[in-house]
Amino acid sequence: MIHERDLEQVHLCVGVEGPNIKDDDRNSAYLFSVLFGGGMSSRLFQEIREKRGLAYSVYSFYSTFSDTGMVGIYASTEPDRFEELVDVIAQETHKVTNSITRDELQNAKNQLRGTIIISNESAESRISRIVKGEIYYGRYVSLDEIISDIQKITLEELQDFVARLFKPGKYTVTALGQIPGSMDILGYFNHN
C-alpha cells in the first residue's frame, strides 16, 4: 500500500505473518527480531545506518496475538534514497537465512535475556506477563522458563524459522511519503 504525501522522509514498513502467542516458533521470532533489527549491533542497523547512512531510524519488531503474529521491519529515509533503502532491506531479508552465525545467535540470546530481566523491574510489566501467562497458557510462566526456552533454540532451528518466514509472496508493504510512482516495492522482496 503506497500513500503519497509531501513529507521530508519516506517511511517504510515491511511485514510478514509471524507465529501467534502460543506457537512454538514465538521465541524464534523474538530472537530473530533482536538479531535482525533489535539494536545498534543488529544487521539492519549496521548495514543500513552505520555502513551506508541510509536511514536514521531502522529496526525490526515482532507483534504477537492470540491467532496470529507479525514480524516487521521499519525504516525511514530521504525520498532520493528510498529505492536504495528498499533494495538493501530486501537483500538483507534474502541472505539472512543462510548467514546467521553462532556468535550472532548467542549475542541475540544475551540481549533478549537482558531485555526480559530489565523489563521485569516494572510492576506493570510483571503483572502483564503474569496475566498473559494465565490467559494464554492457563498457568504462571516464570522468567526462568522463558529464558530457558530462548536459550534452547539452536542455530538450525532459527535458520529453519527464518527460511519459512521470508518466502516470496508472503510480504506486505506500506510506504508513506514521496515515492517514485513506477516503483514496485513488493517486487524487491518477492524474488529469491
Helices and strands in order, then pairings?
Layout: E1 2-4, E2 10-18, H1 26-37, H2 43-51, E3 58-64, E4 69-77, H3 82-95, H4 102-119, H5 123-137, H6 143-151, H7 155-165, E5 171-177, H8 185-189
Parallel strand pairs: 1-5
Antiparallel strand pairs: 2-4, 2-5, 3-4
Explained architecture:
The chain has 192 residues and is α+β, with helices and mostly antiparallel strands. Helix content is 48%, strand content 18%. The protein contains 8 helices and 5 strands. A 5-stranded mixed sheet has the order 1-5-2-4-3. A hairpin with a 4-residue loop joins strand 3 (58-64) and strand 4 (69-77). The radius of gyration is 17 Å and the shape is globular. The two termini are 22 Å apart. The mean pLDDT is 92.
**CATH architecture label:** 2-Layer Sandwich
Percentage beta strand: 15-25%
Largest sheet: 5 strands, mixed
Taking all residues together, what is the mean pLDDT? 92
Spatial order of the strands in the main sheet?
A: 1-5-2-4-3
What form results from the Cα inertia axes? globular
- Work out the count of structural domains: 1
Q: What is the overall number of helices?
A: 8
Counted beta strands: 5
Alpha-carbon distance between the two ends:
22 Å
Radius of gyration of CA atoms, rounded to a whole number: 17 Å
Low-confidence stretches: none
The fold-level CATH name is Cytochrome Bc1 Complex, Chain A, domain 1
Structural class comes to alpha+beta
CATH superfamily: Metalloenzyme, LuxS/M16 peptidase-like
Order of helices and strands: EEHHEEHHHHHEH
- Under CATH at level 1, the class stands as Alpha Beta
- Roughly how much helix do the residues carry, as a percent range? 40-55%
